[in-house]
């Protein structure tokens, strides 16, 4: 009988999270992480390294989950466009004759005519120039975009800089081949140091840069790229870098230092940060070239590489030395070029040169739109002298007045048909509310007659009943039935709340298909421990009997962990390196960013949890988009980092009735086996997590939260070790 009882007890004991389980890193991702095992988290920014690893892994893994095979027509077109126009009949590309090099300029330093030509030609290549396939016509721009998908041997390797140099050359040649006003076009570059300094002076202000306005690279309604169906989510902080970092790169300039991804001075790592700053499609290397900013960014990286190369030449170092054993290796997917030719000094001598970017020292800053010289100094700011800073998308008219470009949604345009979100006009906020006004008649009718079986004349002369007011929670009506006017609450946009943080907009793209219905959500818990060294302006105060006025102790932060030595001892907080532009709002409002990258699908998503950084520790739940596992299981890796770029430790719940979490990789497998711990919509998860208890003899329903559906928890403690290092060391 006792044995039967034990069997019964085991049978009714719940198996927690039958539909979610922890899995190890994919072998290729683990290899990337291990390459940084000797990197010090107190000296290197964790988010930069982890983002590089996951984006590189996802890019390479795309050939397994969503392979792309270019057609023969595409291959032939790219090969011809990658050569110069004078030597197309030869098997190999050849450098232009002396004196025929092109000159590229910074985007904001173009004349109005040059900028208009650039926008016109890019749209022409996107919308008017096509290559015929057996089943469709494909724009030449999209052919170039898709070609990047097969460049798996051009990322995370020494050929990264040279390959993208030829890739830019290919686009530029295609644009020139349009003829007419495009015949002499050169690609502009975007010097993002101006946005970096803007963020240092004022957190989040880089998003207001004129670069993202309608007159430049905007994607909102009426913008130059407003019809391209693009998505962006500009970050509030981090990711960008300034001239001091560039000077450091020049001093350390050896090809093996700047071209290899696992070195401290890797240009590829730095370039990834700008990708992540823009977000949207740029956060996904497979689809990043869909956004024209991709080419502005890569022109900038090529500009920096050439600046470093010229510094090397001036200091007796040869930048053309290709440091691998076989110099004659053909460049991946560019059969007319070798990797060594990509490093050749003939690029500068005969192909492309760059006009120097803006500079306050050379008086080439403030005379350009959206730029202004400012002194980079202030409280808690490392002085960096006078620098050229990006200003808002306003410009001065001919009469001196300030004219503002039309408002735009800088996050997304042209949502997919099945996308349940409705795009708003703010900088990154999406609204899911649809019109609920049921009293409005159709626009083309004077009187809306309801559907009824009685003749219309009887309905028209019917005896009308007095309207009875309907009350509900939050509906404060007076006793006489007349409603009191209510103030409506609206979501801020870029005009009504110009300095407010913005929400994220995901692309909701899986294997090249943009459709929000292909996604589901899982709850993820975030525990945030207050980092060391912070001091908030929340002081204890008392009332002075002598002066009858309040006094405050300005040396004490009432939220400081040191008031409880036991708690302070238990909190494991380290000294992970933050972004240079990191700023913690004095209100304590802090974001924890959570990123997902598919393993058995290609798709990336970003979300965040808001926590209060003043408290010694606190927690919040975020709802993270993943591929819907209803049809087949979803395998995905998640990473999290705080607002300063310090990585959080992923922990997974162990099976059993008592919630116990153990460090894990953050990679999970989600199935549709019951109990399903995911929801098709966030509301589904909230409906499962929250119970509403009917309090007797009241109209109050007491909401109670449960963590039973949460499998993954991130602990954000500013650790001095990266998560993959902590798993090996035990902490």
Could you explain the architecture of this structure?
There is one protein chain. By secondary structure, the protein is an alpha+beta fold. It folds into 2 domains: 214 residues, no CATH class; 352 residues, di-copper center containing domain from catechol oxidase. The chain is 25% helix and 19% strand. The protein has 18 helices and 28 strands. A 5-stranded antiparallel beta sheet has the order 1-25-22-19-20, with helices on one face. Strands 21-16-28-23-24 form a 5-stranded mixed beta sheet. A two-stranded parallel ribbon has the order 2-7. A hairpin with a 4-residue loop joins strand 17 and strand 18. Helix 2 runs antiparallel to helix 3, helix 7 packs across helix 12 and helix 9 packs across helix 12. The longest helix is centred in the middle third of the chain and has 22 residues. It is globular and about 85 Å long. The relative contact order is 0.13. The N terminus is likely disordered.
Q: How are the SSEs ordered, and which strands pair?
A:
Elements: H1 2-12, E1 20-23, H2 27-34, H3 46-65, H4 72-82, E2 102-104, H5 112-127, E3 130-132, E4 137-139, H6 140-147, H7 160-176, H8 193-201, H9 243-251, H10 255-259, H11 267-278, H12 293-314, E5 330-331, E6 334-338, H13 339-342, H14 346-351, E7 352-354, E8 371-378, E9 381-390, E10 395-396, E11 402-403, E12 422-423, E13 430-431, H15 456-460, E14 509-510, E15 513-514, E16 519-529, E17 541-544, E18 549-552, H16 565-570, E19 589-598, E20 604-612, E21 617-627, E22 634-642, E23 649-653, E24 661-663, E25 667-670, H17 682-689, E26 690-694, E27 701-705, E28 712-716, H18 723-729
Parallel strand pairs: 2-7, 16-28
Antiparallel strand pairs: 1-25, 3-4, 5-6, 8-9, 10-11, 12-13, 14-15, 16-21, 17-18, 19-20, 19-22, 22-25, 23-24, 23-28, 26-27
